[in-house]
Amino acid sequence: MTGTKxxxxxxxxLDVAELYKKEPPSFGHAMHEVFGFDPAYVNLNHxxxxxxxxxxxxxxxxxxxxxxxxxxxxxxxxxxxxQTEQRECVAxxxxxxxxxxxxxxxxxxxxxxxxxxxxxxxGDIIIGTTTTYGAVSQAIKYLxxxxxxxxxxxxxxxxxxxxxxxxxxxxDHIRSITNSANGDxxxxxxxxxxxxxxxxxxxxxxxxxxxxxxxxxxxxxxxVDAAHSIGQxxxxxxxxxxxxxxxxxxxxxxxxxxxxxxxxxPKRNQHIIKSPIPTPxxxxxxxxxxxxxxxxxxxxxxxxxxxxxxxxxxASAALDFRQWIGGEYKINEYCHNLAVxxxxxxxxxxxxxxxxxxxxxxxxxxxxxxxxxGEIEYTDEINILLQHTLLxxxxxxxxxxxxxxxxxxxxxxxxxxxxxDFEVLANAFKDASAKVVEHVKKQSxxxx
Length: 448
Hints:
Elements: H1 16-19, E1 42-43, H2 46-49, H3 54-69, H4 71-94, E2 101-104, H5 107-117, E3 125-129, H6 134-145, E4 151-155, H7 163-178, H8 185-188, E5 191-196, H9 208-218, E6 221-225, H10 238-241, E7 245-249, E8 261-264, H11 297-300, H12 315-324, H13 328-350, E9 365-369, H14 380-393, E10 396-397, E11 399-403, E12 406-412, H15 419-447
Parallel strand pairs: 1-10, 3-4, 3-5, 5-6, 6-7
Antiparallel strand pairs: 2-8, 7-8, 9-12, 11-12
């Protein structure tokens, strides 16, 4: 292996099999050797888009070359075996059966597919939360905007809080909905709850399994947005948790090539999914003379139009890489401990506090308050000012947002990070926060 500043060669020149016979770099900055980052970039925002290891990229480049050598042969003949391999690998990791999983583009695509496959009726209810991911929240509103206009019910989540409090309020919220029609609501309406396993902003772990169980007891459908789960959450086990639907991005914490996600639909609910988006040629229509009954869930997702299949075939390569560097437990132990330690150090340097001081809601993302007065509202202008200062002037980044009257950053701790990265980020956010305050002051003067 070479030093941390001399990266592995890219694009086909890397012999992955030979590499995996060697000892991997240690966690921390030495791990930069097997990633393609700008050496000066401080990346504490892995949770947004993911980051591709060079050995996984080499496998993807080889796949791309195979496809381009004979697109017909690969897409028409070889592709199905590759898809099956991906489904089997991912299913094993999440405690599901292979034919309950399909590989799709991303979590938003999966949630949208599920929600649009329900047959909505007037009086049906869709439950979201105040921390539901923006695109998913807007999809819920869209479905309410069009006939037959299902009702949106919003569950309020304000942090800091505890799992115990969340579950108490969630149980009350579900009970209030299911009891609102003299006990017969479930005979007249369909209720679907969209639940985050790990919220995006703030980046906190929710008691999603218990929330699913509460819904199950109340006869409420559950759609779990687990965008951040696979590769970050160790004890997923869907066969035990039994959500009705579950979607997770493989290109985030699992380190597959973006975009790649897994959609889990247990056999008991596969009749709900009548068509992917877009509808494939394999759709089985009752109008067809050769109609064969219910859809074949896996077959429907095998070919939904021409795409670049490489990202969807990269999950197994990501799992091979993760096994080489130590496996799921070792990876997540390092990232979690770094998130806790790094968050404390960042809060110390900023003179603020962490959102979850006890660490009960923290996996590999930590939320730290920013030194921006809470009365300053979020605007696109301020968001752009923060982004440009961090990325263009400091070449460092972590997500930032406003929640519950305060400004926060969500830092994603990964195997290439060290506490010193949080120290660089502290200086970047001090500068960026000061610019935000000055910007707001100037606006106030100009408006006076």
